[in-house]
User: Fold this.
Amino acid sequence: MAPTTAAVIFAALPPAANFAKTKKLHLPFTIPAAPFNIPPMRRAIYPGSFDPVTNGHLDIIERGCKLFDEIIIAILVHPEKKPFFTIDERRQMLTEVLKDIQHGNCVLRVDDFQGLLVHYAVRQQAHAIVRGIRAISDYEYELQMALMNRRLEPSIETVFMMPAEKFSYVSSRLVKEVFQLGGVLDGLVPAAVQQRMKQKLTEGK
Ligand code: PNS
Assistant:
């Protein structure tokens, strides 16, 4: 004889629920959380060029830490682009400045990747991709990327986060331009990054 639905459910339930069965309780009843039912760790990828990391990036990472248990800050290796900092330099700077941010219990990792972001995210068993949106102008490009990524890999969600208003105009590209033309970067990038930029400039002379 085929088992009843209730029998099948009871067979799959932890011992606490079987107690209800022996006491002849009736469904529906609340099944207490079983000790082995540990919620999965929420892991996100925060991808970018980070050439260099700005205070805007760090602000997004701090905000992301309120939502995720682990964030992998993933630097895109772009063979065709001529970057200001090498991948190793960017990795080192990120690792250094991440020590000074508020991350609570969130684990932060720095990594680099090549190829499709969603393939990398799947390999890392990530649940989400975090992207910062500063203004409407960012939105169109970001929306396009998010939808393409969703088409390529529907299991991964993109989460858009807004940085503090004071960082709404800060980008790595502008930071480099201002720096190369002699402008002051205080408050826009961490002091350690500013230091490395000056060092880089003297090395190049
Ligand atoms: O800091 P950036 O330059 O805005 O970051 C852009 C980045 C790295 C998120 C994006 O270029 C990317 O994901 N590149 C990986 C290649 C890829 O997956 N392309 C398809 C995106 S829809």
Remarks:
- Confidence is low (pLDDT under 50) at residues 3-13, 16-22.
- Strands lie at 43-48, 70-76, 107-113, 128-132, 157-161.
